[in-house]
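Section 5.1 Outputs to date
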Amino acid sequence: MSRLAGLRPRITLLVAGVVAVCLAAGFAAVYRGTVTKLRSATDHGLRDDLHELQGQVRGDTSAQVVDAARRSIARQSFRPTTHVVFVVAPGRPVVTNVPELLDIAGGDADDTPAERRAETDDARRLLTQGPGFSDRRLPGVGEVRLLVATRRVPGGVVRYGVAEPTEPTEHARATLGRAFLLAAVLAMAAALAGGLLVASRVANPLRRMARVAQRVDAGDLSPRMELDGRDDEVRVLAHSFDQMLERLQQAFDRQNAFIADASHELRTPLTIVRGQLEVLAMHEHPSGDDVRRVEQIVRTEIDRMSRIVEDLVLLAHADDSAFLRVAPIDLPEFLAGIVDGLRPTADRTMVLAEPVPPVVLTADPDRVAQALRNLLRNAIVHTEPGGLVRLTATASAGSVRLVVDDDGPGIAADDRERVFDRLARLDAARGRDRGGAGLGLAIVRAIVVAHHGTVRIERSPEGGARIIVDLPLEGPASGDG
């Protein structure tokens, strides 16, 4: 439960983490794109202004350039949202629309000497910047985006410069960042709430399943998941879990019944043996007839217990890989031998229906013979002296059908599946010699299933039971079990 207890927060954090990564990726993409567009717009405006400045300020000498620059710049006025314009001609003072900001002579008298030196250095670096775009600091304005172009005249190089304050761009970037931060906070809150709901929907059935598993571990197989109203993988898992519990319950019930029946079947002969020995021990000098009588009874009961134990061991190993030893079986000769071997043991009309199909069956001859003998003995036990027991064989594409019919009382439809259970006897009132231990048909089914076949019971045309065994002609490979 400790792990399940942490499942909801882990799922919640996972959902929130995925949302956070998506938000970060989206913010990075949008922010970078927006900043790039703002910078591109700024650079485009600077190019237009510089081109216009170069078109207005022309001349072949420095004096002509300065005069043209003064006429052009005189028509402009500096505002924080407009461009800063300057022209520097060789040997001439700077012509600019912001002379108070680009004063490299001494600076503002109200400033301290250190401030004046810093402003003078900033102005000198801006005025001497090489061609192209750059970011510089303008005294009194702050950071600016600068574009410089040059033109050679007699005596040196003329520098044309335009600059725009970056404060509006930075303000837009900061506003965008704050908007995304607010959106991210709201989105994360929604992600946490949604993640908690998703985690609860996923974890609650698992927590319930864990509680059911704890009860099962404690020995209670009655609880079930029973998740209604869902149509997802969790419901499939819960349904499979309930089916597993159903099978476990049935297996435990069969196991308990099997143990009880086996104990009863073994206890009875042991009680008979002990009782006969106690009777014999009561006589100080028992007669030979008494000893032989007790010996016969004890031998019979010991043989009965041995058969029960052998049958139980066989059933226990029915799923083992070495259960079968497959070999080719000539069907006509094989079935004739089984019927001929049983015919002298009972006063019944034992019939092998002709013709037997001349096919070769790939199977374990010992196991198949054991299954058929069990079926024929079962038919002999439940028919009267002189009754009919018939074995019929037919072949179809890829399979062989073996049918045992008798004219006994038959088996009720409701009991035709139960008779294959271990230690199942339908007539509790009939004697032990007639009813047997109830393992014969269970062994038949185990052998047939090991051969990948099927067995079932129907009503026989003779009035009794008909047991039908279908086996594939090409059975399992030796050792498949």
